[in-house]
Amino acid sequence: MGKRILVVSRLTQEKTVRGIALMNRPTDDIKTDQTVWSHWQRFMEQEPERPAIVHWVAGEEPFRWNWGALGKNAAFYAARLKKAGVKRGDVCALVIRHHKNFYPIYMAISMLGALPAVLAYPNPRLHPDKFRQGIEGMARRSGLNWVLTEKELESIIRPVLSGAGSTIRDLFFPLEWVNEEKAVSDVAHPEVRPEEACLLQHSSGTTGLQKAVVLSHRAVLEHVRRYGEAIQITRDDRVVNWLPLYHDMGLIAAFYVPLTLGIPIVYLNPFEWVLAPAILLEAISREKATLAWLPNFAYNLMADRVADEDLEGVRLDSIRMLVNCSEPVRAESQERFFRRFAPLGLKREALMASYAMAETAFAATQTVPGAEAKRLWIDRNEIAKGNIVVVKEGAGASRVCVSSGRPISGCELRIVDAQGKDLPGGRVGEIAIRSVSLFDGYRNNPEQTEAVLKNGWYFSGDYGFVRDGEYYVIGRKKDIIIVAGKNIYPEDIEDAIGQVKDVLPGRVVAFGIEDPASGTEQICVVLETGLPVGADQNALRRRVRECGMAIDLTIARVYLASPRWLIKSSAGKPSRSANKDRALAELQHS
Amino acid sequence: MISDRLKRVILTELQLDEFSLEDSTIADTVPGWDSLSHTRIITAVEAEYGIHFKTVEVIRLKNVGDLQALVDRKLA
Question: Which residues of B touch A279 (CB under 8 A)?
């Protein structure tokens, strides 16, 4: 009886808070004993006219998919893939640019009980050999079985098929396939158990050695339900997204969560957005979008680079949540964005934050809808000692930290020391996470798995603290550089630069520095060179930057040093943090 | 043919002392010119000439020659 009263009062409270939202809660329809495909299939069969995906192309009328048309097209692609040999459990890599048929192709893979894995389409500056090596590495590590791509990449990818140890059986070019509307009734969704694999996404990692995270249907569906509840999603929501789908924030938050709940998404071309960020605001305004996820740099880019001329008629009143995620959340970026767009109807309480990673499907924490993410000013000197001492707003020698919110349901967090022991409140430590949507380990990678997964807890390598139940992420254990939401390992840069003419082998250190203007990090390198005094140092700097380009990285600063300048750690390797401090203090860069 | 004025704006923005820019040069072959610095370069070009490019015009640019042609059209 007591329990019943409690439930009723909770419902009444929710009714009051969210009006009709209670009757409109799509998360109640998630069945974690089924598959993701079976959820999509229900919309395809029972609500064929319901809007599913708005495929946005700048300067053109968007293409609108409803669930019925998506279903028919997915069935067509599934029939072709099945005939070509794709089976339940196979991993199908997708390397396809922004195209309206990408979505039914993706869903077709799921229909067959196979695992879709979206990979980045190569940027033209990436050397073809590097891209091929990346695919080779991923094929071995992630166990890719098929590659679905565009004709243009055939000559680059095909040689991988005959490479030693390759698991890839064939390449397909599904954008070339023409749907002749023939009956495709022979394709049925196989009996897939909820604990079987649903998808494969890549976490950060060295090119070709990306860590593959496989998520089960149950893990994805648990996350869809629980994260949907955390953001109080309703059928009136509409998601807008420009994030690439090889990124967990694009794939899980802005694709799986809404689509599995039957909520429409407006999907922009990531390449177009970065060239003309105003298109996101235009799409929000025209499609009355309510939700979007953005890495921190996007706030700066839009605040600084969108001209008034591109905002004519644009209104942002419809937005109820813009979730800052996947880079450290910077208060200054949020503020700058708010000041720029408040006149267009942007609400302050829409500025939210989340802490998320591929290993937990997506979100571990989320701030509360309807309230701006909390900020705390903490003493800089104390934080260096691992203590959290809150000071007055804007006090000298303080650092402002933005909350990423509380753990979502089914997720627990701890702050631990170097030995993995719990730290008391007010101390900074590594964040460890346990979740119902936790991955089982990196595919074919027991060493990396063992390093981060212990007794059911995932050790994130991120540093943070908890206060009043809310988590604040403030740094990283490893030297990973995060540029515009992309995790970069300094080792990759150092290995590549070590090959450049006139650079002393092994005498390179790469590190990131905060760039407040862009709201993200910039890559810097310091290297030792044997070039005599008076030699063309600028030519060397240019070779270094060009070397960065070949691995698709922009090196913002190059510091040149004489032999034996770099400080070595006790292990005999150049120490990144010590050399970063010394380079910034002593050396000139270009 | 890329004008010295346009070339100077681009190279200044990229902090390059010298780099050959032809009509057919694409951004991805110029050190430092990536998608993030692209919007910065476009803003600098707009400021230099006192002109404004539309979103779609920016997206459709294929190479530096296209950018020069767009600038010329705006000034005409």
Answer: 55
A179 touches B: beta carbon within 8 Å: no
Q: Does A276 touch chain B (CB under 8 A)?
A: yes
Fold that domain A481-586 belongs to in CATH:
GMP Synthetase; Chain A, domain 3 (3.30.300)
Across the interface, whether the CB atoms of A301 and B34 are under 8 A apart is answered no
- Whether residue A277 lies within 8 A of chain B, CB to CB, comes out as yes
Q: pLDDT digits over B12-29, tens only? A: 999 888 899 999 999 988
**Sign of the dihedral through C-alpha A177, A38, A325, A285:** positive
The helix or strand, by DSSP H or E, that contains position A341, with its residue range, turns out to be: helix A331-341
Residue A554 forms contact with B (CB below 8 Å): yes
Residue A7 pLDDT: 39
CA atoms A75, A76, A80, A81: torsion sign: negative
Q: Which superfamily, per CATH, for A374-476?
A: Luciferase; Domain 3 (2.30.38.10)
Architecture of domain A24-237: 3-Layer(aba) Sandwich (3.40)
Question: What confidence tens digit (pLDDT) does each residue in A455-469 have?
Answer: 999 999 999 999 999
Task: Determine whether the interchain pair B35/A275 forms a contact, defined as Cβ–Cβ distance below 8 Å.
Answer: yes
- Residues with Cβ within 8 Å of residue A355, at least 6 apart in sequence: A325, A363, A364, A365, A404, A405, A431, A462, A464, A471, A473
Q: B13 lies in which domain range?
A: 4-75
Q: Is A314 on the interface with B (CB under 8 A)?
A: no
Residues with Cβ < 8 Å from A406, sequence gap 6 or more?
A365, A366, A367, A368, A469, A470, A471
ipTM: 0.84
Query: What are the structural domain ranges in chain A?
Result: 24-237, 374-476, 481-586
Interface test with A, best of B55, B62, B66 (most A CBs within 10 A): B55
